[in-house]
Specification:
With 377 residues, the chain is of the alpha/beta class. The chain has 13 helices and 13 strands. GO terms for molecular function: hexosyltransferase activity.
Length: 377
């Protein structure tokens, strides 16, 4: 008989540098686990843009770890490539976390952080807790029972030598951690994916967009010579530092343009859109679940491989974010006018990548295995 686990502790951060994606997908998994009776606690560092308010708003326990005291630069050669995102040495972060982890006594510890590796995991993990690592990079060792990497183009062999032999791998976008609304809206969205040319454009470039790429895209569209029957929707996070500037830029556009902050109906917005101009991050899989073709921008180096793999499927085209952004956008949009089958083909390709059920697959697997005398097979 399966004995459901009761306590899950998440270690993830959001900040103006890290973005919001790690915490957001952990919240999605937390929602599913709570539906099966789990108690959840988040450990997050008190960075600017930490999303602690949203965690509490969702009803979860939260410990905000003290903010880093000074600028941190990793010194040792074996530090993860993103070690600076932690704001301190991993030993210091572990020391901050251990008392809370031990007091909470989790059945599962979920870690979603590019700056943490096997050393931190082994140092903080209680003897009876299992470890789920959520990763995108395959660039460091982990002491994990389960590892989830939801990126297109990822292969299990990419983690060869980085994981214990017992580790169960969930690899590829079909396991993407998406909120239930995306699976629920999938049929509605796919039913309207026969538009030969895009008229409703969605711009969503991450919850933070620290470099104000959204305004650059709006300015590029203004000079791209688009028809006047376009409608544009911009979605941003409340922590984004450039919301006011984006609103001002949107007000100058010749098309009806709305700017939505902290959208609560993202699946509906995507379902009603014909084309997205989006960051090549975790929202890629939300768009795919709804068959939404995308002109994707690589806004961080760690997005490049996944963007390349997604473009290879035909679901997205990659836009140059350099000096020729306007020309790149104009060129791609012109392709839709020249080939009326291109947009529906992209939609079909996107819809084949994932269907929005990944979180249910992982949730069911966790509950099916927990309590079976430690059997993880």
């Amino acid at each position: 008989m399966t004995i459901p686990f009761s306590r899950v502790l998440f270690r993830a951060d959001a900040s103006l540098s890290i973005g919001t994606g790690h915490v957001m997908r952990c919240l999605t998994l937390a929602n599913a686990l709570v539906g099966n009776g789990a108690e959840v606690l988040f450990l997050c560092r008190d960075f600017p843009g930490h999303l602690g308010g949203l965690v509490r708003e969702r009803g979860y326990g939260l410990i905000l770890l003290p903010p880093p005291g000074k600028l941190f630069r990793p010194l040792d050669e074996i530090s993860p490539a993103h070690a600076s995102w932690l704001g301190m040495r991993w030993q210091e972060d572990a020391k901050d976390c251990v008392p809370y982890i031990n007091a909470f006594a989790p059945d599962w510890l979920v870690v979603d952080h590019y700056a943490l590796d096997r050393r931190w995991e082994a140092a903080v993990r209680p003897p009876n807790a299992r470890l789920l690592v959520i990763d995108d990079l395959a660039d460091r060792e982990h002491d994990a029972d389960i590892l989830l990497d939801q990126n297109a183009g990822r292969k299990e062999s990419d983690y060869a030598g980085l994981l214990p032999d017992i580790c169960q791998l969930f690899v590829g976008p079909r396991f993407a951690l998406l909120r239930p609304e995306f699976a629920e809206k999938r049929r509605e969205a796919l039913a309207r994916r026969n538009m030969p040319v895009p008229r409703r454009i969605l711009i969503t470039l991450g919850g933070i967009d620290k470099n104000n790429a959204t305004r650059r895209v709006l300015e590029a569209l203004q000079s791209a010579g688009l028809p006047f029957d376009y409608e544009i929707t911009v979605v941003m996070g409340a922590s984004a530092p450039w919301v006011a500037e984006v609103r001002a830029a949107a007000s100058q556009l010749p098309w009806p343009t709305r700017v939505i902050v902290n959208a609560t109906n993202m699946a509906q917005i995507m379902a009603e859109s014909d084309l997205a101009i989006g960051a090549a991050g975790s929202t890629s899989w939300e768009r795919c679940a709804l068959g939404l073709p995308t002109l994707q921008l690589v806004l961080a180096e760690n997005q490049r491989d996944a963007a390349r793999a997604l473009a290879a499927t035909g679901a997205a085209m990659t836009i140059d974010v350099g000096m020729n952004l306007s020309a790149s956008l104009a060129h791609c949009l012109k392709l839709f006018d020249e080939d009326m089958s291109l947009l529906p083909r992209m939609a079909h390709s996107a819809a084949q990548i994932c269907d929005g059920s990944g979180v249910d697959s992982l949730n069911n697997w966790l509950f099916d295995r927990t309590g079976r005398d430690g059997d993880m097979a």
